[in-house]
Amino acid sequence: EPLFHSRDRSDLEPAPLRRAQPIADPLTAQRFLSKYGWADAPPAGPRATGLAEAVRRFQKVNALPASGRLDAVTLAAMNRPRCGVPDTRLLSRPPPPTRSKR
Amino acid sequence: SLRPRPPQPEVATPRGGPRAFAKRTLTWRLLGEGASGQLAVDEQRHILRLAFRMWSEVMPLDFREDLASPGAAVDIKLGFGRGRHLGCPRVFDGSGQEFAHAWRLGDIHFDDDEHFTPPSSDVGISLLKVAVHEIGHVLGLPHTYRPGSIMQPNYIPQEPVFELDWSDRKAVQKLYGSCEGSFDTAFDWIRRERNPQGAVTLRFSTYFFRNSWYWLYENRNNRTRYGDPLQILRGWHGIPAQNIDAYVHLWTWGRDERYFFKGNQYWRYNSDKDQTYTKDEQGRSYPKLISEGFPGIPSPLDTAFYDRRKQLIYFFKESLVFAFDVNRDRVLDSYPKKITEVFPGIQPRNHPFRNIDSAYYSYAHNSVFFFKGNAYWKVVNDKDKQKHSWLPSNGLFPKQSISERWFDICDVHTSTLNM
Predict the structure, then answer these.
(1) Mutation site, A91, A92, A98, A102, interface B, largest B CB count within 10 A
(2) Distance CA B5, CA B114 (A)
(3) d(Cα B128, Cα B406) in Å, to the nearest integer?
(4) CB of B92 within 8 Å of any CB in chain A?
(5) Residues 6+ apart with CB under 8 A from B256
(6) Comparing C-alpha atoms, which of B142, B152, B148 is closest to residue B167?
């Protein structure tokens, strides 16, 4: 029996497909680069140099022209399906979910 | 402090490397509430079982699906989820980009908004491929951008062959060591084939037998065949299902006979029909007693090999070796002798002495090797003698590690042998 939790089995219907927010601008690119270990946490506003350096590093390992600019090819590489583990370190075991005290 | 803490994974710091599991067998489970709605649960479990087995084929750990223990006792829990999921601090992003993540020595989560498909499909994202990748993280492997590696961060649509390549194997073996272990027997199997011109050519395959399973070793690729080990029962018909003592290929101009030995019996194998003979030319049935077919030879044996030049079978038992003349069907008068006497060690005290596991003549190396435990001793061959005439005939070179010459001969958990 497929698993369901709602009496009307509505949770079995495929959810409307949630799509990942495309990476199309410096802010989403900055977030992508910091999530996968290529840059520090996103600054309040994109600092061109920090971002360019991070983009350049990312371009180099992806065998893309290391221009440091967010060109179409680089954005396409960022939007490819990929593993969520950062590229520069492993995820360590998360603490067990805390339980609300009775 | 009142509630017992869940057991933490036994963790050891391997040689200078990142942290790794110290247990030999790891357990895993697809969480009941974490199954995907896209594939049948059994298919998901089958794909995950295969993914774990693929790692087990190249490293000393094996993996067992555990459906019974308390969740906290299971080493690796896997589950599918959308957005915020399974109490995980990382939120999935919906379809596209992130399709899964894993925690070192911990759990694996798949984004159920992705279109995961079975290995046979060429659309969507192969669940097998993603699972193998994420298990790599659990074992302690980071991302790499090396072409051909399964640990590349981006999904590479289905390639014709999807296997763990040499570098992935070395990376995981750097954390966990290489596969070691003794063998019941090892031998080269000669096959007659016709080449495109119709001429008969002789080829050989190398086999390693251990307990009830075996590997074909591909000498030119320095690894076992993809998907091995297999169960002996599946690949060889009529011989005992496990613990073979010896294999002998008696091969002269007029004779081409292949024998398996176990206990006090032996079987003859029909290469063309790929099964054992039921009767010999005189109508006597197989298996036969070793004492009848090879008078003077004791049993059970440790091992045996056939020396084509001398047309002698050397049978080994404990510290003794018996030389059996195949043309006169009897043991040479001067035998049995001590193994150390017939095959002297070149280096003092560097010798297997007794109870060798296997005596294996390798056509790939044109040499005989004595296996015992994890080690082998190579017997001096003609080429060695031409180079260094002082070497004793049939001398044994100092021992070396089997896993440093024959790579990645790894066990898998018996529950996955039939995959």
Answers:
(1) A91
(2) 35
(3) 28
(4) yes
(5) B249, B250, B271
(6) B148
Q: What are the phi and psi torsion angles at B141 (to 5°)? A: -90, 130
Count residue pairs from A and B with Cβ separation < 8 A: 115
Q: For residue A34, what is the DSSP state?
A: H
**pLDDT tens figures, B19-46:** 789 999 999 999 988 899 889 999 999 9
Instruction: For residue B370, give both structure tokens.
Output: 């004595």
Q: How far is A48 from chain B (nearest CA, A)?
A: 24
Distance from CA of B166 to the nearest CA of A (A): 21
Q: Is B43 a catalytic residue?
A: no
Tokens found for residue B179: 């596969």
In three state form, how does the secondary structure of B141-194 look? CCCCCCCCCCCCCECCCCCCCCCCCHHHHHHHHHHHCCCCCCCCEEEEEEEEEE
Active-site hit among B33, B43, B134, B257 = B134
Determine the Cα–Cα distance for residues B363 and B187; give it in Å rounded to an integer: 9
CB B60 within 8 A of CB B179: yes
**What was the pLDDT predicted at B13?**
47
Express each pLDDT in B286-314 by its tens digit: 999 999 999 999 999 999 999 999 999 99
Interchain contact B106–A (C-beta under 8 A): yes
Q: Nearest residue on chain B to A61, judged by CA atoms? A: B145
Which chain A positions have a beta carbon within 8 Å of B92's beta carbon?
84
What is the ipTM score, two decimals?
Answer: 0.81
Tell me which residue has tokens 């017992």.
B4
Q: What's the pLDDT score for residue B16?
A: 44
**CA A3 – CA A9 distance, rounded (Å):** 9
Identity of residue B189? W
